[in-house]
Design goal:
Strand content: 5-15%
Helix content: 40-55%
Distance between the termini: 74 Å
Shape: elongated
Number of helices: 3
Structural class: mainly alpha
Largest sheet: 2 strands, parallel
């Protein structure tokens, strides 16, 4: 009986530790994921546009360059040269 009480106690402490760590991670992470800091644009050496769904991000990168935020735009083209829309840019 004493060994089962000890085992239950160990399991209880382990659950308590994991719960405390999880609560800490959530409490620390909320400001970063729920209310992230958004800096205003500033001049840079280049604008990097990472590929993904849709083409609006490429247009935004070009618009930022036309507004003078950077002299160069570096865009990824995950579709390769077969992607006519991105090759056009």
């Amino acid at each position: 009986m004493a060994s089962t009480d000890r085992a239950r106690s160990r399991v209880g402490r382990r659950i308590l530790r994991v719960s405390a760590i999880l609560l800490l991670v959530i409490a620390v992470g909320i400001p970063f994921y729920v209310c992230p800091q958004a800096d205003s644009p500033r001049h840079a050496d280049a604008i990097f546009v990472l590929g993904g769904y849709g083409f609006e991000r490429y247009r935004l990168g070009l618009e930022l360059a036309q507004q003078g935020w950077a002299d160069r735009v570096v865009a990824s083209n995950p579709g390769g040269p077969d992607n006519a829309r991105l090759t056009w840019y």
